[in-house]
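Database export, one record per block. Field names are fixed; values are copied verbatim from the stored entry.
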Amino acid sequence: MGKVKGVRANARGDQVVRGRPLFQTVDVPRRSPLFYHEGDDRSSVTERLAPAVRPVCAKKYAPDPAWKAKDAMSDRFDNPVVDTLYMDLNPDSPGWAFG
């Protein structure tokens, strides 16, 4: 069935320790559960912008062992791009403005 192109938004640890860019292209199998399972992590920001913007779904990569345990790097798990995509935009929600 092939693969489609996706975008990986790298966490701070991937950028600093692994030298990865903020965004990188990745291959995603067309049969990935990301495309077929309801309840996948859909971005509320992109859903609010529909139909002008197609909804974005994301799955989290496991932390890279090269930086996972680097306690001196306190921001290694930070990913402001993903935090913004998953910000709760409903002011009536108890988690409003937090992903």
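Remark 1: Residues 3-85 form one domain.
Remark 2: The first strand starts at residue 3 and ends at 9.
End of record.
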